[in-house]
Amino acid sequence: MKILFVGDIVGRSGRQILKDAFKNFDLRSKYDFIIVNAENAAGGFGITNKVLEELLQLDIDCFTMGNHTFDKRDGEQVLLHDKVIRPANLPPNVVGSGYGIFNSKLGNVAVINLLGRVFMQPVDCPFRSFDSLFSEIKKECDIVIVDFHAEATSEKNALGCYLDGRASAVVGTHTHVPTADCKILPNKTAYVTDVGMTGSTAGIIGFKKDSIIQKFLTCMPKKFEVEVIDPQLQAVCIDVDERGRAKSIERVFYPDVICSEGETLIND
Ligand SMILES: [Fe+2]
Ligand SMILES: [Fe+2]
């Protein structure tokens, strides 16, 4: 079974290239199960009900989130939708669920969202959070996909190795930069340190260059705006068998190559 995991959708240009990929690259017929990280879907920060409604038109199976889950006021309401999950290692009693179990042609698929702790806001331990969820999830699912939303490559490497043989795939998100380390670990867990993002490749991690450069130059807070030029969908495709063992993990980019001709899909 082919599972597509799409990196963080950044703002309207990210949503537009995702829609374009569904229409012109025929994502739905190519993949059996589609997961999208939506933590930056609304204006680059968080998600709103309106944006979720827009994304739900695309027949996506599951949305994961990250450190920007609650940036918009609608964040809590969005989490009431059963296709949307938030990081599992937030404190107990936070609204929403840290994992979801969904139907697929090979039976149940569990998707778990976890936050890293290195260079990020303090949260509960992602390693132990997985351990406590896994014993329950394993009763219902052989296919288990983990979105590890984290900054440090070492922490992501470590979780991949820790979950090898238990998760079908551990895919990293959050940095918005795709890494060149797709691999199958010894006990058949697919792994990549970062999927990348879905948005403009012309700016800095999806945002207009100038305000981010100014922030580095001045150390003053700046308002970041979503860039719209040269958008790309960055994803991985994981092929798993019925026992949840990964057979392959491959890069998916749409379009394949960005020619840096300043192409703007939309005016924003
Ligand atoms: Fe993030
Ligand atoms: Fe992100």
Short structural summary:
The protein is of the alpha/beta class and 268 residues long.
Description:
- With 268 residues, this protein is of the alpha/beta class.
- It has a single domain, classed as Metallo-dependent phosphatases (Purple Acid Phosphatase, chain A, domain 2).
- The chain is built from 7 helices and 13 strands.
- The strands form 2 sheets. Strands 1, 2, 3, 4, 11, 12 and 13 form a 7-stranded mixed sheet that branches.
- Helix 5 (126-137) links the parallel strand 6 and strand 7 (143-149).
- The model has no long low-confidence stretch (mean pLDDT 96).
- The site of one fe (ii) ion has 6 residues, from loops.
Key features of this structure:
alpha/beta; six-stranded mixed sheet; 13 strands
Radius of gyration: 17 Å
Number of helices: 7
CATH fold assignment = Purple Acid Phosphatase, chain A, domain 2
**How is the biggest beta sheet arranged?**
7 strands, mixed
Bound molecules: fe (ii) ion
Average of per-residue pLDDT values: 96
Count of individual beta strands: 13
Name the helix and strand elements from N-terminus to C-terminus, one letter apiece. EEHHEHEHEEHEHEEEEHEE
The CATH architecture can be given as 4-Layer Sandwich
Shape: globular
**What structural category arises from helix and sheet content?**
alpha/beta
Distance between the termini: 37 Å
Q: How helical, in percent, are the residues?
A: 10-25%
- Tally of structural domains: 1
* Name of the CATH first level: Alpha Beta
Question: Strand-residue fraction?
Answer: 15-25%
The parts where pLDDT drops under 50 for at least 5 residues are none
The CATH fourth-level homologous superfamily: Metallo-dependent phosphatases
